[in-house]
Amino acid sequence: MSIEPGAAATLAELGGPGVITHIWFTIAHEVPFYSRLLTLRIYWDGETQPSVECPVGDFFGIGHGVDQPFMSIPIRVTSEGRARNCYWPMPFRKSARITVTNESDTACRSFYYYVDWQKHKSLRRNTAHFHAMYRQEFPCAMGRNYLIADLERRGHYVGSIQSVCLMSDGWYGEGDDFFFVDGEAEPRLRGTGTEDYFCDA
């Protein structure tokens, strides 16, 4: 598939109930840092605002628009960062629509993909939708905590990808993670450092 500059390509329009079980991309785009310039959006059950809105690279675990391998249980990126696989289960009741928008000024001439999904007769009433978002600050404000997410309603927080480009010497990873639940003034969970939170201490 080719995606022109500024255009949105529809990758899937599915009728539910169902569950997406696997998404695979491989892309050849001549623009540097292209995976930050391709935006993935997923809409559940006729939404007008996407439940997933994220650059392709970041969605598959690698920030800054670079191609690098990455391994986890739900995300696997191989072939030196060019083969991107997502195994998060993504249920929907009525419909699912997946798009990718080319935010660069150059046509993306080679965008390959497939979406594996299962059709179901019904889903349990309390089945939740998958959500993912992207946010960035440049530069980050000094003297205050960086907001990773501000979430509402019921759900399960399953994690974050954090990509940092240091503008000065030193190590940023001593900052602690804080989880404030249901409007608490003091954090319910207080970590011991960013490096510890990301299992790299």
Characterization of this structure:
- The strands form three sheets. Strands 2, 5, 6, 7, 8 and 10 form a six-stranded antiparallel β-sheet that branches. Strands 1-9-3-4-11 form a five-stranded mixed β-sheet.
- The N and C termini lie far apart (42 Å).
- It has helices at 56-59, 194-197, and strands spanning 8-15, 18-28, 38-44, 52-55, 70-71, 75-78, 83-86, 90-92, 95-102, 110-119, 132-133, 178-179, 189-190.
- The radius of gyration is 18 Å and the shape is globular.
- It is mostly beta strands.
- A hairpin with a 7-residue loop joins strand 3 (38-44) and strand 4 (52-55).
- It is built from two helices and 13 strands.
Write the layout of secondary structure elements.
Layout: E1 8-15, E2 18-28, E3 38-44, E4 52-55, H1 56-59, E5 70-71, E6 75-78, E7 83-86, E8 90-92, E9 95-102, E10 110-119, E11 132-133, E12 178-179, E13 189-190, H2 194-197
Parallel strand pairs: 4-11
Antiparallel strand pairs: 1-9, 2-7, 2-8, 2-10, 3-4, 3-9, 5-6, 6-7, 12-13
CATH architecture identity of the largest domain: Sandwich
Fourth-level CATH superfamily of the largest domain:
Protein of unknown function DUF2961
Q: Radius of gyration over alpha carbons? A: 18 Å
* First-residue to last-residue Cα separation: 42 Å
Fraction in beta strands: 25-35%
Overall structural class, as computed from helix and strand content, comes to mainly beta
Number of strands: 13
Major sheet attributes: 6 strands, antiparallel
